[in-house]
Amino acid sequence: MTTERQAPPEHPLPTPARTIVYMLLSFVLRLLQFILIVVGAVVGVGTVVVWIGFPILLATTAFVRWSGDVERRWARRMLRTPLTTVERLPLEGQSLTRRWLTRLTDPSTWRDLGYLLIAFPLAIVELPVAIASIVLLPMAIWVTPWLGWLHGNFAMSLLGPNRTRTLEAKAEHLQASRGRGVGAAEAERRRIERDLHDGAQQRLVAVAMSLGRAKSKFDNDPDAVRELIDEAHSDAKLAVSELRDLARGIYPAVLGDRGLDAALSAQAAKSPIPVDVHVDVEPRPPAAVETTAYFIVGETLTNIAKHSGASEAIVKVWRSDTHVVVEITDNGHGGAEVRPGGGLAGLADRAATIDGVITVVSPVGGPTVIRADLPCQW
Fold first, then answer.
1. Contact predicate 282/321, CB 8 Å
2. How far apart are CA 7 and CA 149, in angstroms?
3. Which of 187, 215, 310, 350 could form a disulfide with 330 if both were Cys (CB 3.0 to 4.6 A apart)?
């Protein structure tokens, strides 16, 4: 348990069995890779003057990139290293020579080569450790997993995504999220303006007109005055109710006072279909995350009641170290998808205001699962 707390959560310790198998099999693979790469490079450079070296170097370059991709999958599966497919320079529409030159100028090619050349000496060191771990149980339990974790970190440093490209992708994502957030805020502003104009404002105008008519008849027709005042009183109460609903739509008081559990339970109680709610978000997340989660659940339950044909729904909300996860499941007919301008796109825009992500899984026939991953820190 202690070692699991020490390992970074994004790269957990590999199991002893997987690490031992990785070290044993990697030695054979790395030996073949090292021999083919070194021989291909030496022979290719030595015979380039008679042109036969060019296809050898081209094949060696392609082998280096292929081996790098194999190593990513191998380390991801055996060492639990979060290595993803690397982004390479595009090769479409280029001649064979241009493709080779593009591969040579691609930084990922040289990072693959660096890893493969260094990994072979490492494999020579790791092989006896793996053999000894088969016999010595304490070494298998305490030493081998940490050695595999260190190897995974080394693989991440060379085979992982380029830092500059990662930052560029993150900047593009944040820019897109900001744009969607601004759009969502503008749509919310227009909704509030429309609700005020069509609801409370009209009620207050009616109150003013009723009171004006009552004032003009105050001396001549007391009964009519009484009716007009009653009418104005009713309109005033309706206006107060609509303003209260509008304020609740901006930020519900129960959410601020009692948190997500009580607020989502109140939402579920108003749903026309049974909704089972499970909430575990301690410690309490920031207000922006709570508000986003509240409205995502509310809008999703409304859509379920209107369009899904479901007879029940389940709402689960829990918290990890860095995220609040909201998951809404219904047993409806499925087929939901994110369409531009649709309700699910609106949910995605709302989540994007805090850099959250919406995932929709809705096969035809159901069930439908809508998940929101909302970060607790920015």
1. no
2. 9
3. 310
Helix (H) or strand (E) holding 325: strand 323-330
Euclidean distance between CA atoms 155 and 30, whole angstroms: 14
pLDDT digits (tens, 9 = 90+) for 87-103: 777 777 777 778 778 88
The confidence band for 118, taking pLDDT boundaries of 50, 70 and 90, is: very high
> Mean pLDDT in the chain?
79
Cα 110 from Cα 92, distance rounded (Å): 20
Measured CA to CA in angstroms, residue 61 lies from 42, 97, 101 at distances of: 13, 12, 10
Give the pLDDT confidence of 331-342 residue by residue, as tens digits: 888 887 777 766
Sequence-ordered alpha helix ranges (H) in the chain: 2-6, 16-46, 53-78, 96-105, 107-135, 137-138, 144-159, 163-195, 201-216, 222-250, 253-258, 260-270, 287-303, 343-352
Number of CB atoms found within 10 A of residue 126's CB? 24
Do residues 353 and 375 lie in contact, with contact meaning Cβ atoms separated by under 8 Å? no
Which tokens belong to 80? 């639990």
Question: For residues 224 and 221, what is the distance between their CA atoms, to the nearest angstrom?
Answer: 5
Statement: the pTM of the whole predicted model exceeds 0.70: no
Instruction: State how far the alpha carbon of 287 is from the alpha carbons of 19, 184, 244, 257, 356, in Å.
Output: 43, 18, 20, 11, 14
DSSP, collapsed to helix, strand or coil, labels residue 324 as strand
Q: Are 184 and 349 in contact (CB under 8 A)?
A: yes
